[in-house]
Design brief:
8% of the residues lie in helices and 33% in strands. By secondary structure, the protein is mostly beta strands. The two termini are 14 Å apart. GO terms for molecular function: isomerase activity.
Length: 122
């Protein structure tokens, strides 16, 4: 898959933030499947659940990013495996699987929504 897909838009969620990881495939890929421990190349957009405010986007930097899954927040470690290259998945990640309770990280205590395009796995 090339990384020329356009930046997604995230609709404002309704209702209370979930307490468990939610995963929803927006586009099903047909390439290699990501497995736990793989290194993934992705484009992603992240917003806060409560406010809908964007806090990070690889699209804004104009390039995809590559990282080992085991180095990422738990919600990504659990939510990306099973995706196939070419896919786009939305993850809604509660604080316990993101940056923990308020106080440490600026996103601590927040439920996060990510839309992730899987470009490559290694």
């Amino acid at each position: 898959m090339s990384d020329d897909r356009t930046k997604p838009e995230i609709d404002a969620p309704e209702g209370p933030a979930p307490t468990e990881l939610l995963s929803r495939d927006i586009i099903f890929g047909d390439g290699d499947e990501a497995k736990p421990g793989d290194t993934v190349t992705v484009h992603y957009l992240g917003v806060e659940y409560e406010t809908g405010e964007e806090f990070d986007s690889s699209w804004n930097r104009g390039e995809s990013i590559q990282f080992p899954l085991r180095g990422l927040i738990q919600g990504w470690q659990e939510g990306i495996p099973g995706m196939r290259v070419g896919g786009r998945r939305e993850l809604v990640i509660p604080p316990a699987l993101a940056y923990g309770p308020p106080g440490g990280h600026f996103l601590g205590g927040k439920t996060l929504i990510f839309v992730i395009d899987l470009i490559d796995v290694a």
